[in-house]
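Narrative of activities, Objective 1.

The group set out to show that a structural description can be obtained from nothing but a protein's sequence at a throughput compatible with the screening campaign. Below is one input-output pair from the validation batch, recorded exactly as produced.
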Amino acid sequence: MLKKLRKGLTILLTGVAIILVIAIYYAEKIYSDMHSELALSEPLTIDFSRGSTIRTLANQLYAKGLLKEKNHLLLWVKFRRQETRLQAGEYILQPGVTLAGLLDNMVAGKVVQYNITLIEGFTFRQVLQIIAQNPKIIKTLVNLPDDDIMKRLGHEGEHPEGRFYPDTYYISSGVTDVELLNRAYQAMQSILTEEWALREDNLPYKTPYEALIMASIVEKESAIAEERPLIAGLFVNRLRKKMRLQTDPTVIYGIENYDGNIRFRDLRKDTPYNTYTRAGLPPTPIALPGREAINAALHPAKTDYLYFVAYGDGSGRHVFSTNLKDHEKAVDLYQRKKRKKK
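Output recorded for this entry:
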C-alpha cells in the first residue's frame, strides 16, 4: 500500500514538474516575444479606433507582419490587466519599439497629437469651417443650425458667437467636433471668469457676457495690441455718455451675405447689430475675442477719446480724437483725401 502511494506521489510530482517546466518555457517565450524589438525599418502609424479591442490590435499587427503569435499578445494583456485600459487614437511605432512598450504607451494614451487653431476675430461660422476642413476630427454637427449645435453641446438657449476661446488646441485623431468645441467653450468660460473677477470698478457692464460683447468689438477693431485698451476706453466713454458706438464691424456682422464692402446705405439700414441706429451694445458678441481683448474691455484706458479713424496705410493704427471737429479733420486727412487720389 505504501509503495503504491509513493509511486502515485512520484507520478504526480513528475507531472507537476513537467507542467511547471512547460509553463516556464512558455512564460519565457511570451516575455521574450513581448520584449523583442519589432521588425521596423521606419516609423509606422497604427490606428486604434474607438470600439476596438485587443483582438482588433492583434489582427492589425499580425496583418502588418509585426506579430507572429496572436495568443502571446492576448495572454500578456490579460495577465497585465490591460485589455480595458488601452486608449483609442493613432500611435507611431518607432524602430526599436517592443510590443510591451507599445501596450504601455497605449495604456498611457501617448497618441499622435495634431493641432488646430481657432483664430481671434473669427466668427462662429468660420470656426465651424476650420473644423470641417480638419480630416482628423469626426463631424457630428454638419449642417445643424446654431440652436441645435448649442443644444448638442449642453448649452441650450445660448447664442454661440464669442463663446469659444481662440487658441491652438492639440487633438488626437478621432476627436469629435463636440469634444473640441466643449474644450474651447470651457476655456472661454474659465478665462472670462478670471478676468471678470479682476475688472476695474464702475464699468458700464452688468454681466460678464456684456464684457464679452465689448471684447469682441475691441478684437475686430484693433490690429495693434497696444491700441486695444485705447479702443476699449473710447467705447466705454461713448457708453457712459449715452452715445451710439457707431462701429462698422457690428454693422457688418448684421449684414446677410456681406460681400466685403460696407456702403452708406448699410449704415442706415436698421438691424439689431447696427450700432449707428441703435444705442448700447449689440445683442451678442460678433466674433471670438482673445484674452488681450477681454482684458482691455475690463481694463480700458482712462482717456477722453470719443472718436478714432484708421490711418489707412495698412499698419492697422488709428488716430484718436476727443471731439468731432478733430475727428473730421483726421477723416479728411487719412481717409477722404486718399480716396480722392485713387
